[in-house]
Amino acid sequence: MSTINFATREINFKIVYYGPGLSGKTTNLKFVYSRIPEDRKGEMVSLATEDERTLFFDFLPVDLGEVKGFKTRFHLYTVPGQVFYNASRKLILRGVDGIVFVADSAPNRLRANAESMRNLRENLAEYELSLEEIPMVLQINKRDLPDALPVDMVRAVIDPEQKYPVFEAVAIQGKGVFEPLREVSRMVLGRLAPQK
Amino acid sequence: MIEPSIALFGESFEEASRVLEQLIEDTGAQYALLVDRKGFVLAHKEALWAPRPPALDSLATLVAGNAAATKALAELLGEPRFSELVHQGERQGLYVEEVNDLTLLVIIFDQNAPVGRVKLFGKRAAGMLDRITERAKVESSAARKRLGLDTEYRESASALLDDLFGDL
Ligand SMILES: Nc1nc2c(ncn2[C@@H]2O[C@H](COP(=O)(O)OP(=O)(O)OP(=O)(O)O)[C@@H](O)[C@H]2O)c(=O)[nH]1
Ligand SMILES: [Mg+2]
Predict the structure, then answer these.
(1) Which segment, A169-178, B112-121, B134-143, is predicted with the most confidence on average?
(2) What one-character-per-residue DSSP string does A36-64 give?
(3) Cross-chain Cβ contact A196/B150 below 8 Å
(4) Cα(A93)–Cα(A191) distance, rounded to whole angstroms?
(5) I need a surface site. Which of A2, A5, A12, B159 has the fewest CB within 10 A?
(6) What is the Cα gyration radius of chain A?
(7) Range of the domain at A90
(8) How many domains does the structure of chain A reveal?
(9) Which tens digits make up the pLDDT trace of B1-44?
(10) Which atom of ligand 1 is nearest the CA belonging to A30?
(11) Domain of residue A41, CATH code
């Protein structure tokens, strides 16, 4: 749940990029970092292995600005996608307000997409949370691959009921990076201030 | 269940800040922070003579991540918890004490502050902060009401989102 500090008049949200290993989560954050103006972002922290695989998390704080007298800030995190890092992946989900699920369009990653989504549900369940409560958007990444699977096929394994907003992306070129982030942020804010 | 959030209102924030201030005075530490376990800074104080602090956002995030990993390790070993955590460098040290399920106390100190003293007063301060933050736990709906978060908030936040994430 959002952390509200009345005294310093700040509202903070936590958005987590989730998805299978190598789907492009870190690439998303790096692109966001490269484009946000200096005065709107903090340092990016990456806890990664020698070969640039996320080991614990990437972290990037982004300042939205002041809304009705409250400094509104988003903390963006990525999880390590590799299956055997589940213990640390679970820790990052603590207190999550919104999720960007980054799926990989490569044919040989179809199953990994499905497994990662199942893993997300299981890990949320350990915090007694479900995807019914947490806003989520889907990013189908690596659309530039020559053998990229059709979007519908990828979606069918992670979102068969078509419940979540979908965005196509080529994160490495910065395409389709900001749209899902903006949408999930909107959904998160909407939950904080529900329609009357 | 959604985790309750901490909302430090005027009075509890003042109280927490005073505890941190006193802690700095008692120990000679450079910085003292109250952070929640999700990695957000709730309150912080620095000694008048201390140099500019490092990025507090990053600090809080790494401390919270570290504490979460330490806790998971304790559970693996069948321990309910490992208590305090000290990292001692050549010039500076970092001390982390669990306040409660929601918050952590972080103290950064240099050679001028003896570790024993930091630990002693750190534990005492953690006890006080525990009482203060327990009172500050809120139902999110109550927090929203108190904030007056409404359609207007959502709309102006939405406009800012477009500015920042829209045409980059
Ligand atoms: N072709 C193509 N490659 C991409 C795209 N986005 C990312 N990549 C590449 O995919 C590889 C993995 O990207 P990362 O962002 O590190 O993946 P990750 O999801 O963070 O991986 P883990 O940290 O292991 O979970 C890198 O070599 C990227 O350059 C894309 O849109 N198209
Ligand atoms: Mg990564």
Answers:
(1) A169-178
(2) S-GGGB---EEEE-TTS-EEEEEEEEEEE
(3) yes
(4) 18
(5) B159
(6) 16
(7) 12-191
(8) 1
(9) 344 566 666 778 889 999 999 999 999 999 999 998 888 888 99
(10) 15
(11) 3.40.50.300
Predicted confidence (pLDDT) at residue A92 exceeds the cutoff of 50: yes
Name residues whose C-beta falls within 8 Å of residue A90's C-beta, 6 or more positions apart in sequence.
Answer: A123, A126
pTM for the complete prediction?
0.89
Fold of B10-165: Beta-Lactamase (3.30.450)
Within a domain: A103: yes
Q: Which of A16, A23, A101, A151 to mutate to test the pocket of ligand 1 (most atoms within 8 A of CB)?
A: A23
**A133 assigned to some structural domain:** yes
Interface confidence, given as ipTM, is 0.77
Select the more confidently predicted residue: A189 or B144: A189
Report domain extents, chain B: 10-165
Q: How many beta-carbon pairs under 8 angstroms link A with B?
A: 140
Q: Do B13 and A91 touch (CB under 8 A)?
A: no
Pair A97, B3: CB distance under 8 Å: no
User: Does the beta-carbon distance from A193 to B164 stay under 8 Å?
Assistant: no
Q: Tokens representing A155?
A: 């979606």
Residue A4 lies in a domain: no
